[in-house]
Write a structure and sequence with these properties.
The protein folds into 4 domains: 36-109, 2-Layer Sandwich (Alpha-Beta Plaits); 125-361 and 508-630, 3-Layer(aba) Sandwich (Rossmann fold); 365-499, 3-Layer(bba) Sandwich (Glucose Oxidase, domain 1), CATH 3.50.30.30; 676-771, Immunoglobulin-like. The protein contains 20 helices and 38 strands. It has 781 residues and is α/β, with parallel strands linked by helices. The strands form 10 sheets. Strands 6-9-5-12-13-14-25 form a 7-stranded parallel beta sheet, sandwiched between helices. The chain is globular. α3 packs across α4 and α9 runs parallel beside α15.
């Protein structure tokens, strides 16, 4: 029957052609103007051979377009692994005809042109719809290799498909290492390398049973974290993914045609129920990556304070990153999830690009209707059925009972079942941990409750197990609900499914968990460097951690923000192959948004919420398009890094060990304030200081820049000269900055900025200054 219908369709198409209603010759001539990419979804595969599946896609297009050549030219991608489908260049009428075929589930315009990794890339201005933007002029980073050091990779995920990709870059020297459920066949022109490093882990955990472990002794990912971050950095385009109707769209990475090399150095310990990464294993992984020829190294891992100094070999990431940077490899690291407390940022070495996490311009309002008809909007990822009006309770002693009641979320399990059974429960928590939400939901569900409302500090949302209704509100809204409960004789509540709100009026905020500066190792080195979206990011994972059988999950953390920057770095590297890692970092920092993309102020979540400053987000929110054309950069080389280590008081022997040659520091030692960073941070200003910066022109040869200063409160800043002139013989120009304070007491940090502008480029660096008239270790500032 299907063949008969197909034959009839072919006859009809041929009749249409003969009648001249839609001339295919005319279509070919005007295709660039009239056609666009559509995704044709065919459901489950009908054959295990991917080549056979692709051929079936070609035959289907052939039946529509009338020739094998037209079908080949129209085909963009063939989805042939996890499911069957393809992307093709079609007119609107052709797409409608395909949609009418019985074997076609649906045909949709390719969201590749509209959405990115759950909004991230569209939000940052990297939509594929603009043919002249950074994404397209670099061919989506195809010649760049991103090395990821993490928990491994799930190679079957469609985000690692290599449809339409050219040969592996010639500078690649790595390979795919075989192991448990993994061999060279799992690699392709997208996932070009995969290795694993476990020796140091095994040496530390001698009781670890490799045979019985849930983890795979191979590059294969058990946890899913590595697959997730690799997807964000460079996942191939995968259409029509959503979280149960929320946060949907096309999933892809920042540089979707860049190549991925996975270096597994983090392992799941079954007895401890944790993932851990030996510094020695990480260092070995980075060493291999340097050898293999990666262009970017992405590490979504780190350590908590106290942090080992950069010259301490136990700081494997800093050590490996140093050698990578000297080889021209940009190293991108997460800043940590210990926020919002100050001085918690990790991966602070000045040669590392350290990333903070922000929210997107997206929220998930979830209506809570009280019995008095007042509607409160909480936040949740609840997609289940509406919970009709049902009893609402806050567990507290009504005054006439000997029973104990607990309204704190962490203590809900100590309530009797009858207190919560068949009811929606309100609780309060001061914890910033996401587990406080999931645990509260588990306690209520176990007692037979129907839902839980958690009052807490503003934070990101995550789904609860089995889509149990768990809605978060802030303390003010929580208190309003509590007052209603206490004033009503029979309080009731209705909970509706969550909705998705995108764009204004949703504001961008630095995530509460994102670790903050100032730098605890070297206060004069601003960390983090930059911020990127890292809250509720939808990306691929290992199938044992997925919310559906297609292998995707929504996660939050600076782990998710770092690969966003890695993807941007890959695009910059593709456009500017001769730029050093420091130049790339400078371009990203000096062009960042200090507001959100809509011009609204960026706040930092915490207690209390405040306007974001450089210790929250470094230079600001990454602006990829602007970063590709910064005008000027603050560059660094080996000599600069040696001067930095000398200024920090590191011994000459430790510096020599790190750089691999004898080093003698000057006497007196240099000032760390002269280190040529794209920022100026003065942690202990008392007397007037003068510091130096050097700018390198990477824009028009003949350029003139003028300075604009926004001084921190109570701080005087003068710059000399006030004009910088670049030409064919003058490509690097230095300037001096004189800083003094009018404060008469110790202060906290105040913030400002210094911008060089030629009316086209605005090269902005943050100023962070703290007055310290008297060093006071008990000063809370």
């Amino acid at each position: 029957m299907r063949n008969y219908r197909t034959s009839i369709l072919v006859v009809l198409i041929l009749v249409t052609i003969l009648n001249g209603q839609s001339s295919f010759l005319a279509r070919v001539g005007a295709e660039s103007e009239r056609s666009k990419v559509y995704v044709v979804y065919l459901g489950e595969k009908q054959h295990d051979d991917p080549e056979f599946v692709t051929e079936s896609h070609h035959r289907l297009l052939w039946s529509l377009l009338g020739s094998k050549e037209d079908a080949h030219d129209s085909m963009v991608h063939s989805y042939r692994h996890g499911f069957s489908g393809f992307a093709a260049k079609l007119t609107n009428s052709q797409a409608k005809k395909l949609a009418e075929l019985p074997e076609v589930v649906h045909v949709t315009p390719d969201s590749f042109y509209e959405l990115a990794t759950t909004r991230t890339w569209d939000y940052l201005g990297l939509s594929a719809a603009n043919p002249k933007n950074l994404l397209n002029v670099t061919n989506m980073g195809e010649e760049v290799i991103i090395g990821v050091v993490d928990t491994g990779v799930w190679p079957e995920s469609q985000v690692f498909n290599d449809n339409g990709m050219g040969p592996v870059p010639s500078h690649w020297k790595g390979d795919c290492e075989s192991g448990e459920m993994f061999n060279s066949s799992h690699c392709n022109k997208k996932l070009i390398g995969a290795k694993y490093f476990i020796s140091a882990f095994l040496a530390k955990y001698e009781s670890f049973n490799a045979t019985a472990s849930l983890d795979f002794i191979s590059p294969r990912d058990y946890d899913g974290h590595g697959t997730h971050v690799a997807t964000i950095a460079s996942g191939s385009v995968f259409p029509s993914i959503s979280y149960k109707g929320l946060a949907g769209g096309t999933v892809r990475g920042g540089a979707p045609r860049a190549r991925i090399a996975m270096y597994k150095a983090c392992w799941y310990h079954d007895d401890l129920e944790i993932n851990t990464c030996s510094s020695a294993d990480v260092l070995k992984a980075m060493d291999e990556a340097i050898h293999d020829g990666v262009d970017v190294l992405s590490l979504s891992l780190g350590s908590n304070v106290p942090i080992y100094p950069e010259t301490d070999f136990r700081n494997g990431i800093a050590t490996g990153a140093f050698h990578a940077v000297l080889k021209g490899i940009t190293v991108v690291c997460s800043g940590g999830n210990a926020g919002p407390e100050a001085q918690t940022v990790s991966n602070t070495a000045p040669w590392i690009l350290t990333v903070a996490a922000t929210t997107l311009d997206r929220s998930f309002p979830t209506p809570i209707t009280l019995g008095n008809n007042k509607v409160i909007l909480g936040q949740a990822l609840y997609t289940g059925p509406e919970v009709g009006f049902t009893s609402l309770v806050y567990p507290e002693n009504p005054g006439n009972s000997n029973e104990s009641f607990y309204g704190t979320c962490e203590l809900l399990l100590y309530n009797s079942n009858r207190t919560m059974e068949g009811k929606v429960v309100l609780c309060f928590t001061t914890s910033l941990l996401s587990s406080s939400v999931s645990n509260a939901a588990r306690y209520v569900k176990r007692a037979g409750g129907l839902g839980v409302i958690i009052a807490r500090h503003p934070s990101f949302v995550r789904p609860c197990l089995d889509d149990f209704p768990c809605i978060t509100v802030d303390y003010e809204l929580g208190t309003n609900i509590l007052l209603y409960i206490r004033s009503s004789g029979a309080p009731v509540v209705k909970i509706q499914p969550s909705k998705t709100l995108v764009g204004q009026p949703v504001g961008t905020k630095v995530a509460s968990f994102s670790s903050r500066g100032p730098n605890s190792v070297a206060a004069a080195i601003l960390k983090p460097d930059i911020a990127a979206p890292g809250v509720s990011i939808l990306a691929a994972t290992a199938t044992n951690r997925t919310f559906n059988d297609r292998g995707f999950i929504m996660l939050s953390g600076t782990s998710m923000a770092a690969p966003v920057i890695s993807g941007v770095v890959a695009l910059l590297k593709a456009k500017h192959r001769d730029w050093s890692p420091a130049a790339i970092r400078s371009a990203i920092v000096t062009t960042a948004w200090r507001t959100d993309p809509f011009g609204q102020q960026i706040f930092a979540n915490g207690s209390p919420r405040k306007l974001a400053d450089p210790f929250d987000y470094g230079g600001g929110l990454v602006n990829p398009e602007k970063a590709s054309n910064p005008g000027l950069v603050y560059d660094l080389g080996l000599e600069d890094y040696v001067l930095y280590m000398c200024s920090q008081g590191y011994t000459e022997s430790s510096i020599s060990q790190l750089v691999g040659k004898g080093t003698v520091c000057s006497n007196p030692r240099p000032s760390v304030l002269d280190f040529n960073l794209p920022s100026i941070t003065i942690p202990n200003l008392k007397e007037e200081v003068t510091l130096t910066r050097i700018l390198t022109n990477v824009g028009p040869v003949n350029s003139v820049y003028k300075v604009v200063v926004e001084p921190p409160f109570g701080v005087q800043v003068t710059v000399a000269p006030e004009t910088l002139v670049f030409n064919s013989t003058t490509k690097r120009v230095s300037f001096k900055v004189k800083v003094s304070t009018t404060h008469k007491i110790n202060t906290g940090y105040y913030f400002g900025s210094l911008t060089w502008s030629d009316s086209v480029h605005n090269v902005t660096i943050p100023l962070s200054v703290r007055t310290q008239i008297l060093q006071d270790y008990y000063d809370e500032n």
